[in-house]
Amino acid sequence: xxxxxxxxxxxxxxxxxxxxxxxxxxxxxxxxxxxxxxxxxxxxxxxxxxxxxxxxxxxxxxxxxxxxxxxxxxxxxxxxxxxxxxxxxxxxxxxxxxxxxxxxxxxxxxxxxxxxxxxxxxxxxxxxxxxxxxxxxxxxxxxxxxxxxxxxxxxxxxxxxxxxxxxxxxxxxxxxxxxxxxxxxxxxxxxxxxxxxxxxxxxxxxxxxxxxxxxxxxxxxxxxxxxxxxxxxxxxxxxxxxxxxxxxxxxxxxxxxxxxxxxxxxxxxxxxxxxxxxxxxxxxxxxxxxxxxxxxxxxxxxxxxxxxxxxxxxxxxxxxxxxxxxxxxxxxxxxxxxxxxxxxxxxxxxxxxxxxxxxxxxxxxxxxxxxxxxxxxxxxxxxxxxxxxxxxxxxxxxxxxxxxxxxxxxxxxxxxxxxxxxxxxxxxxxxxxxxxxx
Length: 438
Description:
With 438 residues, the protein is α/β, with parallel strands linked by helices. The protein has 13 helices and 21 strands. The strands form five sheets. Strands 1, 2, 3, 4, 5, 6 and 16 form a seven-stranded mixed sheet that branches. The chain has a five-stranded parallel sheet with strand order 8-12-9-10-11. A five-stranded antiparallel sheet has the order 17-18-21-20-19, with helices on both faces.
């Protein structure tokens, strides 16, 4: 029987980072993975969708080349080549992750791990023993009740990422981040796209003002958005993407009898489960199914499994959505704050249309919104516009380090750049905007 200090089950963002961090701290580590390292994010999520969006966004821009004084004749996009490019990118990054694991002396065990009892994991006919276990088994696409993914008419996001034919019509069931990403891709390819959302609004958790602008932009792309509407498969035509959320993967963990919160594994602030010595990270246990959340949780779980005392917090977690233009958000929305009873807040807004660099780049859609309390503490920043997914990092840094809206407003930025818009939004919250009416 092989013995390790730590066994990590699952090689996604949380799992491989946990394994590397534990190895850096001197532990003998095994990483069990039944598929490719990198998990959903690298192989079936974040990276492949962005690789495809990079192509469709370039295609859209080339169609508007005349606006830049550039002539592009007979512009076309070849979806099979786009998919091939996506696959090459994934393969390259997977090899990079494997290289890092190897150089950190993490032993990769190929197969499906099953926890037999505390400290004992079986892979096939082989037993592995450890002092601590970190569970990072991830999640899988959730389906509609009574409807199975068939890979032809009813598709998961996994299926659609390998589709080499442009459908004439695509129904998207679920108006969350995944649905919006595929709406972005296929509307650019000329597909008739309809989004079905059972809730009153798409993009739950996003600032209402941002959502309103997104819907207007989707309308320009001829994407039909139906809210408060349940999809009826019996009366549908074309392909249908079902993206109504993801379900934690619990197979192989049954013997632990873990405490659950709904469908997720319950953990404390140290990311330890109800079973001492067993930790859970990423989609298996997280309130936010984001790769960067899993990265941070993997580091903290590894350190705690080796005796440290670190706590994970959901405060100041930024996220990005790769619509066109992009969405970036961190902290509370205006609706969140007012719903809690706090009406005494300051709101600053700045339109990209008033930003010199945006005009120069012909990227004038969207706004930057900064929300603070009366003391100047920044409570949330919400952006729709070019480079929003990068800009939101500045806002997260400010909030994490308790930089006030006044200090943010005083921090002048290089000209002409997009960060100037964040400074202007902070100035607007103070009724001191220089390039817009207060």
